[in-house]
Amino acid sequence: MIPVSEARDRILAALHEMPPEWVGLENARDRVLADDAKAARTQPPADLSAMDGYAVRAEDTASGSAPLRMIGESAAGHGFDGAMGAGETVRIFTGAPLPEGADAILIQEDAEATGDRIVPKDPVASGIYVRKAGLDFSAGDIGLPSGSILSPRRIGLLAAMNVPWVPVRRRPRIALLSTGDELVRPGEHVGRDQIISSNALSVAGVVRLAGGEPVDLGIAPDEPDALARAADGASGCDMLVTLGGASVGDHDLVQDVLADRGLALDFWRIAMRPGKPLMFGRFGEVPLLGLPGNPVSALVCAVIFLRPAIRHMLGLEDTHPEIRRGVLATGLNQNDRREDYLRSSFRTDEDGIATLTPFSRQDSSMLSVLGQANALAIRPPHAPEAKPGDPIEFIALDGVA
Ligand code: AMP
Ligand code: MG
């Protein structure tokens, strides 16, 4: 049995970065930029007014100056043609270009206007309420570096930079193959001795949240040829994830069947609970991750191994789920040699302290408990007995699984 961290390192080391593909900004949300994005123009393109008022030459507004004479108007999208001379002013609105000769804005609240005679209530400083050309960015600036995740706020920036298409990492295609004679899909006829297959759907969600694209290969029965045929469906995908059939029971076929057909096994069995029968290798060209069949084990292992794998393929450095710190609400027994991920609920109090309550029932088949949990409390191998109030590390599940 190898430790969790070593298993994860070995998985990541075997994977390569996805090639880029081009997407329009309307489809770019949450994608990972595959190259530096450079501004195609300068913003603002010229000096613009930040307020409604009058474009002035600051020197004309000193106390004792003569009233200014308004000679025209500049609105957003419709600048004033011509230059402004000494003693002159131009009515101006937010976003409008400054007329040539002007260097400041007298806001309308600070002006007394009678026809075309404008009197500043106070002197105006040069540059005030002017957004200089290039204040935001200049053509050629790197607005976003390669590897940026394209959140809505960053898509706004790309749009302003007049970059309508961007190269992003292709989403890794993750083939999901459920195994087991007992499984039927939700909503289908359920025979005697059958249960509903939940893993492909829950793990597909983890894949999507991590930035991958799930490809459901369906349910293979516990029969060698059928399993092998179903696994062939993964060619062209970036990873094959098998669900179930990974332990050593007579009907756990994945390892044997795929070994006969070119599986190069890296490791199987890890020091983790839930999730001991985790398997990793390469099936032909395709990396293969074998997840345990128990639904809780499958989902927890997807969070701990598959999510980092997908994020690594996307070229992200921040691959692992964030480890947070909290305190235990209840005591825990001493741990054995397997790293334990306890389904828990946590709340954060007004001081920002998270209190974790591990559920008393931790059976790896129990989706009802997993459904109530919003955290996995981490118990390292051989962790000593813990009392209420003791510190504990955890992974928050919202946004992850
Ligand atoms: P296995 O690893 O195939 O021995 O499966 C371990 C346990 O998980 C068994 O009780 C299976 O019935 C169950 N199981 C396997 N695959 C799924 C699935 N896709 N959905 C729900 N339960 C499953
Ligand atoms: Mg099975």
What's the domain count?
4
Give the bound compounds: adenosine monophosphate, magnesium ion
Number of helices: 7
Secondary structure: number of strands: 26
Rounded to the nearest angstrom, the distance between the terminal CA atoms is: 26 Å
Q: What is the H level of CATH, i.e. the homologous superfamily of the largest domain?
A: MoaB/Mog-like domain
Structural class, from secondary structure content? alpha/beta
Ranges with pLDDT <50 over ≥5 residues? none
Shape: elongated
Strand content range: 25-35%
CATH fold name of the largest domain, please? Molybdenum Cofactor Biosythetic Enzyme, Chain A
Output the strand order for the largest sheet.
Answer: 7-4-6-5-9-8
Radius of gyration: 31 Å
In CATH's first tier, which class of the largest domain applies?
A: Alpha Beta
The main pleated sheet reads as:
6 strands, mixed
CATH-derived architecture of the largest domain: 3-Layer(aba) Sandwich
What descriptive keywords fit this protein?
single chain, 401 residues, alpha/beta, Molybdenum Cofactor Biosythetic Enzyme, Chain A, Molybdopterin biosynthesis moea protein, domain 2, Molybdopterin biosynthesis moeA protein, domain 3, 4 domains, six-stranded mixed β-sheet, 7 helices, 18% helix, elongated, binds adenosine monophosphate, binds magnesium ion
What report would you give on this structure?
The protein is α/β, with parallel strands linked by helices and 401 residues long. The chain has 4 domains: 4-17 and 171-313, MoaB/Mog-like domain (Molybdenum Cofactor Biosythetic Enzyme, Chain A, 3-Layer(aba) Sandwich), CATH 3.40.980; 20-43 and 136-169, Molybdopterin biosynthesis moea protein, domain 2 (Alpha-Beta Complex); 48-131, Molybdopterin biosynthesis moeA protein, domain 3 (Beta Complex); 324-396, Beta-clip (Beta Barrel). 18% of the residues lie in helices and 30% in strands. The protein is built from 7 helices and 26 strands. The protein has helices at residues 4-13, 152-160, 199-210, 224-232, 254-259, 295-313, 367-372, and strands spanning 20-24, 37-38, 48-49, 53-56, 68-74, 88-92, 104-107, 111-114, 117-120, 130-131, 142-144, 165-169, 173-179, 183-184, 195-196, 213-220, 239-243, 263-268, 272-273, 279-283, 286-291, 324-328, 339-348, 354-358, 375-379, 391-396. The strands form 7 sheets. It has a 6-stranded mixed sheet with strand order 7-4-6-5-9-8, with no helix packed on it. The protein has a 6-stranded mixed sheet with strand order 16-13-17-21-20-18, with helices on both faces. The radius of gyration is 31 Å and the shape is elongated. The chain starts with a helix and ends in a 5-residue tail after the last strand. The chain binds adenosine monophosphate and magnesium ion (MG). Adenosine monophosphate binds at residues 178-180, 182-183, 195, 197-200, 243-247, 249, 252, 292-295.
